[in-house]
Amino acid sequence: MTMPYVNELKERFLRYVAVSSESNPKNPTVPSSEGQRALARLLEEELKELGLEEIELNEHAILTAKLPGNADNAPSIGFVAHLDTVPVNLSPNVKAQVLHYEGGDVCLNRELDIWLRLSEHPELADYVGQDIVFTDGTSVLGADNKAAIANVMTMLGIMQRENRPHGDIRVAFVPDEEIGLCGSKLLDLNKFKVDFAYTIDCCALGEIVYETFNAGSVVFSIDGVTAHPMSAKGVLVNPLLVATDLMARFDRLQTPEHTEGKEGYWWFTECTANAARCTLRMNIRDFDRVRYEERKRFALDAVESVKAQHSRAKIEVQVTDVYNNIADSLGDDRWPIDLLYQAADRLNIAPNTIAMRGGTDGSALSVKGLLTPNYFTGAHNFHSNAEFLPLPSLHKSLEMTLTVLDLAAKRG
Ligand SMILES: [Zn+2]
Prior knowledge:
single chain, alpha+beta, Aminopeptidase, Alpha-Beta Plaits, 2 domains, four-stranded antiparallel sheet, 17 strands, 31% helix, binds zinc ion
């Protein structure tokens, strides 16, 4: 790849991560934060400069645009990336730094004495001698998913400047992926007409994902009976104790901390309570659709048995499907996935197929009928202050995008 593109890619990435765009799970509107709209506006201007067509930024901060095809019969391909960074207990403001990694531990922040230790992050050893973008230790980096935005934006320029053959290319930048794929669920596929699409939203060089969890969220609401303790005997029903009885029904070994690979789990994520009321939140995850449905049923059965145990408590339960396994939407045509392996092969990248213990925007889009597999950004340690992005891996991620488009145009 020639030098101007390498610089453009890096500059774009640093520009996008500098826009604070953390999503806010407490805000039910989409977008959940104004920073995401600010990033969408910046990208809207840049898409105009790139000369794209049908640029639209809607009220949900969903930004879509089209680069019209120049090759007959080439498929139309979409690229979807998310605007938000994950809300975790870190600063929402990203201060990225590019360091030439010489090996050993990395000091992210001298003042606060924050280090990335090689002993805790042995993956660093693969990148000795490379330029790497790190955080300053106080925030995530936001390579999830701004590495993808930089990748797609740079690709749009290259396709035009080099007059490369391609079908219609559509891009969609969507908000609030991290808090339930809210943006991609609102993406109007009538305005995003493509044969298939990709997200670029997983980690290390070579990763390819077309299997994700089926995901659901459960809210248990428990109303007890309050009483003054002087006259509480036989009267008071403590919703906190009802909640612990409910939680005890779930296998302690089927939790995120005890499972891996293709194993599913239940995950209690929140408990708010007072003497009168307790609200519990739980996530359900499973790759297998049948087992996922069984887990939902198990949660409902647990409520019934706790109701029988505490007949004077009022217990309500609400189960919501959040996203589905991409693999369940796969028809006979696996070409969009095969293209990823062909591209990796051409680029001498060893593919690493991963069943992702999470979801992507593709999980929401695939269930709507748009097959959307996922490939690597090149970054490590998403969702933590240890997130880092080796720039050569980001270049490879862009080369994947360009190669997929090239292979697709040739078969077209
Ligand atoms: Zn992401």
